[in-house]
Design brief:
The complex is a heterodimer of chains A (766) and B (141).
Chain A: H1 2-22, H2 26-42, H3 45-49, E1 54-61, E2 66-72, H4 74-97, H5 104-123, H6 127-145, H7 152-183, H8 188-193, H9 195-200, H10 204-218, H11 227-230, H12 236-245, H13 249-262, H14 266-288, H15 293-314, H16 317-348, H17 364-378, H18 384-397, H19 403-425, H20 446-464, H21 466-482, H22 498-515, H23 517-523, H24 526-531, H25 535-557, H26 562-583, H27 598-616, H28 620-640, H29 644-665, H30 677-703, H31 711-722, H32 727-735, H33 737-765
Antiparallel strand pairs in A: 1-2
Chain B: H1 6-29, H2 37-54, H3 57-64, H4 68-81, H5 84-88, E1 98-103, E2 107-112, H6 113-140
Antiparallel strand pairs in B: 1-2
Helix pairs in contact in B: 1-2, 2-3, 2-6, 4-6
Classes of the chains: A mainly alpha (766), B mainly alpha (141).
Chain lengths: 766, 141
């Protein structure tokens, strides 16, 4: 399992090389990986469908109790199969769709890395591991959405998607940590078995809110729904993969995964059902009034995500069964339809439904399977979408509360859903032939047709034989969402009942709406103006605010005057020392000047004299020399107290500092009295206070001894365990080597910083 | 930047190898006597800077042969690499490894990851001091 997930990242790393070698066939060659993974996951099917769940674990950071552990049960296996299965079609499809694109190699890298992250996310059993994969999907999808990085819109909306999902990710991280505290473990398999403990824990409400923010942003629930359609700036294969089958379902996956431990409460039901139903309606409504091919599909994805959230919120056995069936149905038809959208763009150059019409003769195969997938979208018998929709309506009618509003929204959604399906399934193919930007000369190539054909056909096969999907996986998946075996089953024909009546009614009403599509859209034009004030407006306001704040604080803090930087640093240090000394009641015992010996007095005299000279002199060179003498005298102090290494270092550093100052000295103007007396008094005051504070601090450390000194240990252990007699060096390179590593790292960074500063100035001048 | 002093230039020629040798000596003896990578690195950097003052920037770069920035990188790599053997042996990060063996003429030799680490420190110190010094001196011209 570990190797299965790692293999995606490894293959991602060599993908550009593979692409270079295999050229046109690269899509098929790289498609071997997801296909192999699909077969690998399929091998778990017999065990999982008989109700087993398998946990596989590798130690990762054992010290922090973080393991790389994987949980294979119905839910994660359903997702893993969808991700790898659809992944295969996407990779082969992209090989042809983006053929000849300059960055196709890079595309393979990101999409395979994304696939690996997604697999890791759904299979992870450890919460931290899951979170890491969660963030990886955000980052890789950012790169995928912004794939056409020379396009300003692609960059902008990639960033928007990233900020929304990563912002939610932050909330999720806090939620996960709380969940682990409440559940007593970072392992999902243990937390899920501890549902009651979590639900009764005092952290339940905050952790629920945080996790819901994470899931809602990722799965584009109202009011975060705006980023998903915007993410259509991505190339079509990416949209097909991320925004139908995988990435956006991550939030839904999380909700389903945590249902056994978080679900079943009043607040869970109300929040999920309401937000889900609202999202469902908003999505389908906006889909109905859009005309862009990918826009319509994207909004209908929002609808599907809302439906799934609502169903998980309702949480009855039928509802969970419906959720899993709907999930499968949606992934199949939406994957197929997005790939069809890509074919429309690729062959006919059409990005908008208004540009299309009568294409069935030019693209007969595409048309046939697009219609099949659209029928599933509309929930028409005998497709799998119908099975899922019947179950959905049934569970809404039997919901434990809010039946009225949920039913209303569900019925409206069903009607508009049929209309949207008609837009997708009828508009481009029938009617009079509309002149498309490109005239399609031939059917799409096999690599691009394979996906729509297989996925749409599966929708029909599962519809005619729901038992196949049911016994295979859907039942096991619903059982892992419920946390207990599920008795419900999938069937094409439930007899004549309310859901069937609603379906029939929505077919007729939806058909009428499609017939009047043009008028309806015109009547809904006001939505555009209303959308100006939607949540996306809030997003842009927030981004503007961030920029404003950072500009303001840059102006204040990074003012470019060295003197202010120094004043802030010195005053801050003195202030902090002073406050701390007050708070902790630091005392200084008497200093015994009478014990000073004559040579020590001489050293002090030199120190004070050099200091006074440095402050008072009018010559810059004199000041530098005085500072140098100060440094050398300090080195002398070190040597006197038998710290030879420190003394040598001080001498060398002092020498180099003086050389450094001499190097820049020529460039500086002479000492001029530019500042007023008041300013100089202020500076003197700050210097005196800071110096006094540091002196106080030094003196007080002589008395205060919070812990036993470690120096005795170093002295004793230096030779036996460090094999060295020079204790200072043994401490530097052995006992505290990690500290030294950090220090030389800082040193290197500082050198690079200085280098950059000098170079940029030199280039500016040129 | 040249000071055009014959005495300085002649002294620089002779002092450079001596100082460099001395810096290596300091580096190697550092574990038992005062010295070590940090001090050794400073001495080596000072040697090159002295050469820079006695000659000019071009000959200083020439005598160094490599860009000081490469020394920075190499030093960091060595320092990190020295931490790895312990990790592969299943010990705590940065646990020192010692190998002792006897070589004819030289007698007993002690080698260790600590030495590798110290050489890393030595190179980083030379690299950072010279990166700053040489570039400043170049900016002068």
């Amino acid at each position: 399992m570990l190797y299965a997930i790692l293999s995606t990242f490894l293959v991602a790393a060599i993908a550009p090389a593979v692409h270079r070698v295999t050229g046109r066939a690269s899509g098929w060659v790289l498609g071997i990986l997801p296909a192999a993974l699909f077969l690998y996951f399929l091998s778990f099917l017999p065990a999982v469908s008989s109700g087993e769940s398998i946990v596989l674990s590798w130690p990762w950071l054992p010290g922090l109790d973080i393991h790389l552990s994987f949980l294979v049960d119905g839910l994660s296996l359903l997702f893993a199969l969808l991700i790898s299965g659809i992944g295969f079609f996407i990779v082969t499809y992209a090989g042809r769709y983006l053929e000849g694109h300059r960055d196709l190699g890079r595309f393979y890298v990101i999409i395979l890395a994304f696939m690996g992250s997604m697999l890791g996310l759904v299979l992870a059993d450890n919460l931290i591991a899951m979170f890491v994969f969660w963030e990886l999907t955000s980052i890789t999808s950012y790169l995928l959405i912004g794939y056409n990085h020379e396009n300003a819109d692609a960059r902008k909306y990639a960033l928007q998607g990233l900020i929304v999902t990563v912002g939610g990710g932050l909330a999720l991280l806090a939620g996960i940590v709380m969940l682990a505290m409440a559940g007593g473990s970072y392992e999902l398999s243990e937390i899920l078995a501890n549902g009651d403990v979590v639900r009764e824990h005092s952290l339940y409400l905050p952790l629920l809110i945080l996790i819901l923010i994470g899931a809602f942003t990722k799965s584009a629930q109202v009011p975060f729904h705006f980023w998903l359609p915007r993410a259509m700036a991505a190339p079509t294969p990416v949209s097909a993969y991320l925004h139908s089958a995988t990435m956006v379902k991550a939030g839904v996956y999380l909700l389903a995964r945590l249902n056994p431990s978080l679900g079943g409460t009043e607040i869970w039901f109300t929040t999920l059902a309401l937000f889900g139903a609202l999202t469902m309606f908003t999505g389908v409504f906006l889909a109905f009034r859009s005309t862009g091919v990918k826009q319509v599909l994207a909004y209908s994805t929002v609808m599907a995500l809302g439906t799934l959230t609502m169903l998980i919120g309702i949480g009855t056995e039928t509802a969970l069964m419906a959720a899993m069936a709907f999930l499968l149905a949606h992934s199949l038809y939406k994957g197929a339809l997005f790939m069809v959208a890509g074919i429309l763009d690729h062959e006919a150059g059409a990005k908008d439904f208004l540009q299309t019409g009568g294409l069935r003769t030019a693209l007969p195969v595409t048309a046939a399977f697009a219609i099949l997938a659209a029928l599933s979208l509309g929930g028409v018998i005998p497709l799998f979408g119908f099975v899922a929709k019947e179950l959905m309506l049934e569970s809404v009618l039997e919901a434990p509360g809010l039946v009225g509003i949920l039913t209303l929204l569900a019925v409206l959604t069903a009607i508009l859903g049929v209309a949207v399906a008609a837009i997708v399934g009828i508009r481009p193919w029938f009617g009079s032939r509309v002149e498309t930007p490109k005239t399609p000369h031939h059917e799409a190539p096999p690599a691009m047709l394979a996906g729509p054909v297989v996925l749409a056909s599966l929708g029909l096969i599962f519809g005619l034989g729901p038992g196949l999907a049911d016994e295979g996986l859907v039942n096991a998946a619903a059982a892992s969402v419920q946390g207990a075996p599920v008795d419900a089953y999938l069937a094409l024909w439930h007899g004549v009942n309310w859901p069937l009546a609603i379906s029939a009614f929505s077919l007729i009403a939806g058909g009428l709406l499609y017939w009047r599509w043009e008028q309806a859209r015109r009547a809904l034009a006001w939505v555009d103006q209303a959308a100006e004030y939607g949540p996306e407006k809030g997003y842009f306001k927030m981004m503007d605010g961030l920029v404003w704040i950072s500009e303001w604080q840059t102006r204040v803090l990074q003012n470019g005057y060295l003197r202010y930087y120094v004043i802030v640093i010195v005053a801050m240090t003195a202030g902090l020392v002073g406050v701390t000394a007050q708070l902790f009641d630091v005392s200084v015992s008497a200093v015994h000047f009478e014990r000073l010996q004559i040579h020590e007095m001489a050293i002090i005299a030199i120190l004070v004299a050099s200091m006074l000279f440095a402050v008072l002199t009018r010559s810059r060179l004199g000041a530098v020399a005085a500072l140098g003498s100060l440094g050398f005298t300090v080195a002398l102090v070190y040597v006197l107290y038998s710290a030879a290494d420190v003394g040598i270092t001080q001498v060398l550093v002092e020498t180099l500092t003086v050389i450094l100052l001499v190097l820049v000295l020529f460039r500086l103007p002479g000492f001029l009295s530019l500042s007023s007396t008041a300013l100089r008094l202020r500076d003197a005051g700050i210097a005196l206070v800071a110096g006094g504070m540091i002196t106080l601090l030094m003196l007080s450390t002589l008395d205060a001894r919070l812990f036993d000194s470690i120096s005795q240990y170093f002295i004793e252990e230096s030779e036996p365990s460090g094999y060295g007699r020079n204790i200072v060096n043994v401490v530097l390179v052995d006992f505290r080597a990690l500290d030294t590593l950090g220090e030389i790292f800082v040193l290197a960074l500082a050198a690079i910083g200085v280098y950059a500063m000098i170079r940029f100035r030199a280039e500016d001048r040129r | 930047m040249s000071m055009h002093s014959l005495i300085l230039r002649t002294a620089g020629h002779f002092l450079l190898p001596l100082l460099l040798l001395f810096s290596v000596f300091l580096l190697l003896r550092g574990h038992d006597e005062p010295g070590g990578g940090f001090i050794g690195g400073l001495v080596a950097a000072a040697a090159i800077v002295l050469y820079l003052f006695s000659m000019d920037i071009r000959s200083a770069r020439k005598v160094l042969r490599v860009d000081p920035r490469d020394l920075l990188g190499a030093g960091m790599v060595l320092a990190v690499v020295s931490a790895l053997p312990a990790a592969f042996l299943g010990q705590a990060f940065f646990t020192a490894q010692w190998w002792e063996f006897t070589v004819p003429v030289f007698g007993e030799i002690k080698l260790s990851t600590v030495l590798i680490f110290d050489i890393g420190v030595y190179l980083v110190v030379i690299g950072s001091v010279l990166t700053i010094m040489l570039n400043l001196a170049e900016a002068e011209d």
